[in-house]
Amino acid sequence: MFDLLSSSSELRDSLALLPVLVALEAVLSADNAIALAAIAQGLEGHVLQRRALNFGLVCAFVLRVGLILTASWVIGFWQFELAGAVYLLWLVFQYFTSSNQKDQDGDSHHHGPRFKSLWQAIPMIAVTDLAFSLDSVTTAIAVSDQIWLVLTGGLIGVVALRFMAGLFIRWLDEFEHLEDAGFVTVALVGVRLLLKVVNDSYVPPEWAMIAAIAILFTWGFSKRKGSDADTEVAIEVPLEPMESEREPQEMPSEVP
User: Fold this and answer.
1) Domain count, the chain
2) In terms of C-beta density within 10 A (0-12 exposed, 13-18 middle, 19 or more buried), how is residue 21 classed?
């Protein structure tokens, strides 16, 4: 009887931690979502982009499960975090050093590689999510040591990540600074992983990372694309003269 009550109490405590893990995944996945959305934009058309995110995140969840199950072993090897940091910083370097790619309408909006097929984008999406997971999974393991709970939070986090990445694909076409802000946050995650390798005491606290991400995304959503162009067009359109300023027109002569 006491064992049953004890297990029931533990189950309630575990379920109470589930919203915390989901919220943690959602907060830490904002920069991940924008990076995945930017990668998916390397494909032509929203249909292929959605498919790449769907298949890529299924593969990403499989990799997350493997990471969660081996987390205690992975944490013991700093080489994994170093590899994740180098990969994320490489993504940032590639983004800021590459020239804009033009789409079919001639609009210049995409940095980074273009993919000729869906199967070129899927592995990159999965590996990118895995690199981000090195930070978020270790944080989740610190919150709870129950594997099934962390796996459930990870599954819900992947679903939320797919939803956010879909939104970001649309928002990247609407806001001028959003993609830049997203990749600056990717750089912050890469630097954070690098600092963990060098010395844990150098790692900034979670609240500082969340505050920095919030500031960057506020800047990212601060300006819509085309707002300056609309203003210039409005200024350049000549005003029609007022009735009193119009030159008098000559009256036709009367025919005798």
Assistant:
1) 1
2) buried
Residue 119 CB neighbour total at 10 angstroms: 10
In the block, tokens 């199967």 appear at: 119
In a domain, 256, yes or no: no
Maximal CA-CA distance, the chain: 122
In a domain, 97, yes or no: yes
Let me know if 195 is exposed, middle or buried by CB neighbors in 10 A (0-12, 13-18, 19+). middle
Q: Supply the Cα-derived Rg of the chain in whole angstroms.
A: 26
* DSSP-derived 3-state class of residue 175: strand
Q: Note whether 89 and 193 are within 8 A (CB).
A: no
Highest average pLDDT, of 27-31, 230-234, 243-247, 252-256, comes from: 27-31
Between CA 95 and CA 89 the distance in angstroms is: 10
DSSP 109: E
Residue 102 has phi, psi (to 5 degrees) of -95, 140
Q: Structural domain of residue 139, as residue ranges?
A: 15-238
Residues in CB range of 256: below 8 A, 6 or more apart? none
What six digits make up the tokens of 139? 């944080």
In a domain, 1, yes or no: no
Higher model confidence: residue 207 or residue 251? 207
What's the whole-number mean pLDDT along residues 160-180?
Answer: 86
Pick from 4, 179, 222: which is nearest to 92 by CA?
A: 179
Cβ-based neighbours of 82, under 8 Å, separated by 6 or more: 193, 194, 197
What angle do helix axes 46-69 and 118-143 make, rounded to 10 degrees?
40
Give domain status of residue 66, yes or no: yes
Q: Which amino acid is at 19?
A: P
How confident is the model at residue 6, as a pLDDT? 45
